[in-house]
Amino acid sequence: MPNSTIHQTQVVIIGGGQAGLSVSHQLSKQGISDHVIFEKKRVAHSWREERWDSFCLVTPNFQCRLPNHPYDGKDPEGFMRKDEIVDYVERFADKIEAPIHEWTTVLSVEKLKDIFIVQTSIGTWHCEQVVCAIGSFHTPSRPNGAEHIPDNIQQIFATDYKNPGQMPQHGSIAVVGSGQSGCQIAEDLILADRKVHLFLGNAPRSPRKYRGKDAVAWLEEMDYYKTCFDEHPDPEKARGGTNHYLTGRDGGREIDLRQFALKGMQLYGYLEEVSSSGFRTRADVKEKLDGADRSYLGICKRIDAYIEANNIDAPEEPPYMPCWEPPEQPLTTLDFDAEEITAIIWCIGFRPNFRFIKADIFNERGLPEHKRGVTALRGLYFIGLPWLHTWGSARFSGIAEDAEHIAAKIGASTSVSINH
Questions:
Q1: How far apart are CA 190 and CA 263, in angstroms?
Q2: Mean pLDDT across 122-127
Q3: Cα separation, 90 vs 208, whole angstroms
Q4: What are phi and psi of 344, to 5 degrees?
Q5: Which of 3, 140, 232, 396 registers the highest number of CB atoms within 10 A of its CB?
Q6: Can you give the C-alpha Rg of the chain in angstroms?
Q7: Please, are residues 350 and 140 in contact by the beta-carbon 8 Å criterion?
Q8: What is the DSSP letter of 416?
Q9: How big, in percent rounded to 5, are the helix, strand and coil portions of the chain?
């Protein structure tokens, strides 16, 4: 229960990850030292506790550009592992001397007249401005019917998966969802010689290295990542879309699910029904694989066009040829008993949970309506959301720019002190 102590500050930041820390740093640069950060767990909690043991970034280290804290390691072209990411964020918090309260839950945020009332597990704060920096990936999802799956089958979310040794010693494992988490977890299990059944979604895929350079490096050179949300040809699809799958594991490589199939992984289409005895899916394995490949080829063509237009000397690549095709009549059912399923890993996304913020600014999906993080409720801001402003807004590459923008907005409207 929160105590009755009431504190006053100019700005409350909710969330002590890289987004909240970046805002804190930029506020200090603005001369707004009177602010506080509340973190429900610990700094870098999601990196530390909600990633698997072999997790690493999928974007090169050189794109890690927290404000005044760019990547300073020995492998800018590489991909930091989980522990290195945690260390990177923790060093940032120490460097900026972040005014952070760890293990503090924000219970509610409500605006009364010109003041926000922020109730926390350690007391109440009155402030003029609030920045919500907790992203939007809050509650992991699982489909209707999952509650009927027999208790002898272990069910976990991607955020709970650590390593193959965590799984039941015998039997097969179903991984539901083929986004970045699902594909990388499925690969982690395949490399441990486990039998995996992977259920596909609409995630696109990307090349890793293409024509002598990492695809991310090409796209950055092409200013692709400077595209603003308002300039995107399909902005709503951008915010609601799934990230391209690829990996930074073992120095970085692309993921082609067709190669997984050649290694014995069983691929299924989109999961449509869950029962106590098994899964039923659409017969759309080929459609899902071809769709992912179209994205892959589209990125390659965009890079080809840039190389040609700028007369760049870059090695040619042989055209992509699918290494495996699904059968004309793909499997559309999975019988738990017949396939000896002993574990299911749900990797089908998250639902936002901003219910603690008492404000009429959320859409039907529970996400805040905003313009580059600025909401219609004066003094309430968001940061760390996908495509807040650019592709990098929810990543290390774009946080600094977004934080600087929000800090400037706060600085322009925050009074010297709060008068009660």
A1: 8
A2: 96
A3: 28
A4: -130, 130
A5: 396
A6: 23
A7: yes
A8: S
A9: 30, 25, 45
